[in-house]
Write a structure and sequence with these properties.
Pfam families: UPF0102 (PF02021). InterPro entries: Restrct_endonuc-II-like, tRNA_endonuc-like_dom_sf, UPF0102_YraN-like. One of its GO terms (molecular function) is nucleic acid binding. Belongs to the UPF0102 family. The protein is built from three helices and five strands, in the order αβββααββ. It is α+β, with helices and mostly antiparallel strands. 35% of the residues lie in helices and 33% in strands. It has one domain: Trna Endonuclease, Chain: A, domain 1 (3-Layer(aba) Sandwich), CATH 3.40.1350. Strands 1-2-3-4-5 form a five-stranded mixed β-sheet.
Length: 118
């Protein structure tokens, strides 16, 4: 039962993050896209920019932030690189990686371009 609970909690966190981005004019291109490196929670766009978003939820933002490992970051980048092939400009597509932290109370902290230095 804990697997179902985790799935539902993750989906609820993603739904909240999608709503937050939608309020700011972003468009959802895909949810839970699977690439060769693994799953990317959200793929969004605003103008010509593609945004890959990793959603992390936990009792606190600090705990959520610790749930993103270097190995997972590398897998996200591998999948995103493959995903760029679906866009007209391919690897020349302007993009960024955001991390959205969601705490137990449902508060969201979006870290734009969070993986820039990873």
């Amino acid at each position: 039962m804990s697997g179902l609970r985790s799935y539902l909690a993750g989906k609820a966190a993603e739904d909240s993050v999608v709503a937050r981005y939608a309020e700011e004019g972003y468009r959802v291109l895909c949810r839970r896209w699977r690439g060769p490196g693994g799953e990317i929670d959200l793929v969004l766009s605003k103008g010509d920019v593609v945004i890959f978003v990793e959603v992390k939820s936990a009792p606190s933002w600090a705990e959520a932030a610790t749930r993103l490992s270097r190995r997972q970051i590398a897998r996200l980048m591998t999948s995103a690189e493959a995903g760029l092939g679906f866009f007209l400009r391919g690897s020349l597509t302007e993009m960024r990686f955001d991390v959205a932290l969601v705490d137990r109370a449902g508060r969201i902290d979006v870290l734009p371009n969070a993986l820039m230095a990873a």
